[in-house]
Amino acid sequence: MFFEWSFCVLVVICIIQYFYTRSKSVTDENRIFQQFQCRYLLIYLLAAAGDWLQGPYIYVLYDSYGMTKHAIELLFMSSFASSLIFGTFIASAADKYGRRLSCLLYAVLYATACVTMHFTNFWILIIGRVFGGIATSILYSAFESWLLCEHSKHGFSPDLLKIIFSNAALGNSIIAIISGLVAQYSVDAFGYVIPFDISIAVLVMMTICVIGCWTENYGCEKTALSLQFMDACSAMRNDWRTICLALIQSLFEGTLCLFILQWTPTLSDANNGVIKHGYIFASFMVAIMIGSMTFKLFSKYHRPESFMRFVLAVSVLCLATPIIWPNHAMAIFAAFVFFEICVGIFWPSTGFMRGVYIAESTRATLMNFCRIPLNAIVIIILLQNLSRQKIFQCCVIFLTFATVAQQYLYRITTDDGKEEAKLSVMNTPITTEKIAVSAPTNPLNGLSLISITNQ
User: Where is the chain membrane-spanning (predicted)?
Assistant: First the structure.
């Protein structure tokens, strides 16, 4: 009953937090922003649903086809490899050929991957995993790139991005729970391949919505792809903020991928092989929702660069728990729940920081560059066939480095903010005996304006 009661407690906390953090005031400007936010979230969450519907039953479907464990591992490896090799370049082309077009390509590729699940031939399934890996790269870059460009075009305050990213993380968790239930009931009624057919239907709906609701936007459509990659490399090389952000994202999300593969066997062994998978997964999703709303609270008073230092430090302790107490199921489950809360804070925080620090002209390209180390980390760790303890030790090391990178990012952005404040004071004309100082109260606001101007 521990897992069931834990889920209920988390739901109550989530409901209380939702009503505490929701916005109560509505102005004309807010109405325009709300309409824009709804247009984005509708399509993004349909895209996420197309992904979530497939997740629970990929392994089981392959197993039902009589695939060996080694063959299934090769199929999963091909997905990460295609995301690393092909996805980086195809998804990066969104800056030149259009983010809206890239989102439509996501639907086509993922729907094709779902069609291949009807076949038992290993090589056809490999093709499906390759398409799925490319689609994943597009999902994690093109949609956000479209959002940030349109947000800037509409002239909305950069701080409103915090609301969109928080609600996206919240909605993503809700969609994950609903998709899991739909997949479960459809499998019980019709078999393992049906969730993939439902995913195709959802992706078709997403395609219709994109065509009807979104306009096209670009990074720098007149620049050749080779020059675009060079510009992105140059931008990363010349800006330590971007380098830090890329490291943090790669290390944390690489750890998250490893965690997703390890939480089930870890809790099963700690609890003598008997766990409530459905309640645990639902608890994790509710924890992410709590994290996304916690981000709203934190960001009212502090910059993400500041509070993410402590969030990452907590995540280190969370994933150290199964190393210290490998047989204590309750302690491990509690630590995993807190880690998922950290995930819920991480997603909107990094989304907002990407909006501030990454230039518009090469946004999708740079975002995919950030995913190269992520995919490499997962592939290398999986190829080593390490024990579970070793994998969690690697996770702790990765998160420790991410914490150090976040501390450095906080330091350099704080120094930049102080420098801007000094320049603002020096450039202010003296109109009376007193100096009129007009410096931004929040260093991040100054950075946001500069980032937008450079775009």
Answer: 6-21, 41-62, 74-91, 103-124, 130-148, 160-183, 189-214, 243-265, 277-295, 307-325, 331-353, 365-384
